[in-house]
Design brief:
Blueprint: H1 3-22, H2 28-42, H3 55-74, H4 77-89, H5 103-121
Helix pairs in contact: 1-2, 1-3, 1-4, 2-3
Length: 122
């Protein structure tokens, strides 16, 4: 499997990991790990900032796929296969209409901007 195919698979796995959060058959510890993984995947804040040459992109290339692989191994097989199948059809009718999933990301950015403004002007 080449890099392009892996990236495409990863793109499909993040929504499936998100769907695992909603499934009642998923153990609590796995839900916590899945929540951290999805939050990290969607977060505008990286562990290593992207502007650092080479190292900045390592977290996107190594850390995120590793987190997804770990979560997938912890998810019961039947739950994973169902969530993976649902995630493939999730975008069939266009983007999901649930805009409120963006609220945590907007909140994080608002806090960052407020902290910067406070540090600069006060």
């Amino acid at each position: 499997m080449n890099l392009k195919e892996r990236a495409k698979k990863l793109k499909a796995d993040v929504p499936a990991v998100f769907l695992v959060l909603k499934d009642k058959r998923t153990p609590v510890f796995v839900k916590v790990m899945a929540a951290v993984t999805v939050a990290y995947a969607l977060s505008p804040i990286d562990l290593i900032p992207d502007f650092i040459p080479v190292l900045g992109y390592l977290d996107d290339v190594i850390l995120l796929p590793s987190m997804i692989a770990l979560v997938i191994k912890l998810i019961p097989d039947n739950v994973w296969s169902e969530c993976r199948e649902k995630s493939e059809n999730m975008w069939a009718d266009g983007k999901p209409k649930r805009w409120y999933y963006a609220i945590p990301v907007v909140f994080v950015w608002a806090v960052i901007i407020l902290v910067i403004l406070k540090a600069v002007f006060f």
